[in-house]
Design brief:
Layout: H1 2-27, H2 31-41, E1 54-55, E2 58-59, H3 65-79, H4 82-105, H5 113-120, H6 139-144, H7 159-177, H8 180-189, H9 191-201, H10 213-230, E3 250-255, H11 262-267, H12 273-279, E4 296-301
Helix pairs in contact: 3-10, 4-7, 5-10, 7-8, 8-9, 8-10
Length: 310
């Protein structure tokens, strides 16, 4: 009896396998059907470049075919790099509220917050040239503008202080070069570099300059991020308010003594060393020498936002 059952199951299995193979062959897509399926599953659209775009109130000359094509490129690249785009929306919600009032305090147009976006992706990035922080400030520029940079402390990673340095640089560039657009380009290529190219090429604005790849794309990248971040629905970005990153509220602890070990220091406030560094990335080592007894403001997150092992 068992033998009969086994033989019956074998026959059923063979019939099932045969049926599956017939179905699989019949259902296998042809090259044409597969191509149609791929096209229908994911669509990429040409984008209409807006008729009017500006940076800091200065209009882009989109009637110029070269300018139109360069703007189109940056809109396409940044629209269809979806993962990066979503991260920019998330981080902007967290960091723009810190940057915006400082720009306003210095009389810098609000559009310059998008310069920080393209410089670092609103992260504490490090460039091959040694520029650091959200505003990508070089060591020499930092020290010239009063930031502390040493093995213990690097205030290029201090968002408020580095934003102020960026503002000072941009004000000088605007005074020298005459426009906010050229000042923004100078943030990438240097005041002297932009001034020299304007003089050599006998033109008076950024859009008439022949520049290298990076500086030549610079303003267009800023404007593309401005346009996309201000019109997420138009460019296909979908998210809820709760999907965006939030700034954790903190309080300030003033410190004017050396610190032997920041891990021990952190525990006094119910946090650990990692969390201390998240909120104070300008502290570069696990200790602070501070022989000069300089006063530092340490940001401590309010209780309840982190779960920390005792």
């Amino acid at each position: 009896m068992m033998k009969l059952i086994r033989n019956t199951l074998s026959v059923i299995g063979l019939l099932s396998l045969a049926g599956f193979l017939i179905y699989a062959v019949q259902d296998a897509p042809s090259d044409e059907n597969l191509e149609k399926k791929i096209i229908n599953d994911y669509n990429v659209y040409a984008l209409a470049v807006p008729d009017y775009l500006d940076f800091a109130g200065e209009r882009l000359p989109l009637e110029n075919p070269d300018i139109l094509e360069r703007m189109d490129r940056e809109l396409l690249v940044n629209t269809y790099w979806q993962s990066n785009g979503l991260l920019m929306f998330k981080r902007a919600k967290k960091y723009f509220p810190i940057i915006e009032p400082i720009l306003a305090e210095y009389g810098i147009p609000d559009d310059f917050k998008y310069l920080a976006v393209i410089e670092s992706g609103l992260t504490n990035a490090v460039s091959p040239a040694g520029a650091r922080g959200v505003w990508q400030i070089l060591k020499g520029t930092a020290k010239e503008n009063g930031l502390e940079v040493n093995s213990n402390v690097d205030e290029r990673y201090h968002l408020e202080k580095s934003t102020r340095v960026a503002c000072k640089y941009l004000l000088k560039a605007k005074k020298r070069l005459g426009s906010w657009t050229s000042a923004a380009a100078a943030y990438n290529a240097g005041n002297a570099g932009i001034a020299r190219r304007l003089r050599e090429q006998k033109v008076d604005n950024y859009y008439d300059l022949l520049l290298g790849e990076e500086t030549g794309r610079y303003i267009f990248r800023i404007v593309a991020l401005k346009e996309i971040l201000n019109h997420p629905d138009k460019y296909g970005f979908n998210f809820r308010e709760k999907d965006l990153y939030k700034l954790i509220p903190t309080y300030t602890v003033e410190l004017d003594t050396p610190v032997v070990n920041f891990a021990d220091f952190s525990k006094q406030f119910g946090i650990n060393y990692k969390i201390l560094k998240i909120h104070n990335p300008w502290l570069r080592e696990k200790h602070l020498n501070n022989a000069s007894r300089k006063k530092y403001a340490i940001e401590i997150p309010e209780q309840g936002f982190y779960s920390v092992e005792p």
